[in-house]
Amino acid sequence: MESNAPKILIVTTGGSIAQTSPMDPTLSGDDLVQAVPELRDMASISVEQVAQVLSADISVEDWLKLACRINSALSEDDIQGVVVTHGTDTLEETAYFLNLVVESEKPVVVVGAMRRPYSLGADGSANLFNAVAIACNPNAKGKGVLVTLNSEIHSARDVTKTTSNLDAFKAAGLGPLGYVRSGRPLFYRTPTRMHTSASKLHFSCRILPRVAIHYSYAGVTPDIFEATASAYEGVIWAGTGNGNLPKSLRVAVGEAVRRGLVFVRASRVNFVVVERNDEVDDDTLGFVTADSLNPQKARILLMLALTKTTDPAKIQEFFDTH
């Protein structure tokens, strides 16, 4: 490898891409890189392991550790980009968290695999190759944290896991930012919402506020909300349709908001832009709306927003711009 080759840090966290048995992700980062010798022809690779878990077990503490290491690495002049390997179940959440807290315009690419290394047609090596190709590409700079699987390039804000097939990750209603073809990243659009270096949600604290997600369904009653709301600083409502809130809950939620809880209306529908004051009088009730963020990503933004303010109007500005 030439001395002027791009320097890429690969940070591993476990997940299916590293899973050698149905229960454990045992492959190290070095194992993953050695399985794709073509990477050494593309970049100068260094590898670090931040976690070794299935993505269902990724914690907020893991996010904080990951963000700290990535920000430190990207502050070094000779590091061109970072690739994060991750299990697919919560990959979109980790990627969106990083999209809001990474402080550099340099590429950060989160990658996983839908098939484990021992499965027929395993996709991890190809996905990792594409992730490094994206991180090396100058056109990836300034586009926020990116997610790649199945030769597609997605914005961390928009993408979500939709199925267990190889084409699991989609940005419903918006589509990918681009594709990787024969190792060449091709971009066709750019995210417009604030992210990474332009984000207003960078933070220095080591503890994030507690935010819960409550799910709506036909016949939902307020008892579960009332039993748990006092333990959290914010609640994301995964509502029906346009994030709708049944009348049976409005008294209980209104009382919690008056006590200081921040309540955000999101939607359980695959892609909806939740509009303010449509069927629910958000202004009067003091609610926040999640725009197009799904409930799990709305939770991340709210946790970070609560490190800045508890004012619903100011928090609404974060949802409208990030």
Description:
- The chain is an alpha/beta fold and 322 residues long.
- The protein folds into two domains: 192 residues, Rossmann fold, CATH 3.40.50.1170; 111 residues, Rossmann fold.
- The chain contains ten helices and 14 strands.
- It has an eight-stranded mixed beta sheet, sandwiched between helices. It has a four-stranded parallel beta sheet with strand order 11-12-13-14, with helices on both faces. It has a two-stranded antiparallel ribbon with strand order 7-8.
- Helix 4 runs parallel beside helix 9.
- It is elongated.
Short description:
This protein is of the alpha/beta class and 322 residues long.
Q: How helix-rich are the residues, as a percent range?
A: 25-40%
- Give the amount of beta strand, in percent: 15-25%
CATH architecture of the largest domain: 3-Layer(aba) Sandwich
Poorly predicted runs = none
Supply the CATH superfamily name of the largest domain.
L-asparaginase, N-terminal domain
The count of β-strands is 14
Strand-and-helix sequence, N→C? Answer: EHHEHEHEHEEEEEEEHEHEHEHH
Main sheet characteristics: 8 strands, mixed
Number of helices: 10
| Radius of gyration, whole Å | 20 Å
Distance between the termini: 39 Å
Categorize the overall geometry: elongated
Report the structural category: alpha/beta
CATH class group of the largest domain: Alpha Beta
Fold-level CATH name of the largest domain: Rossmann fold
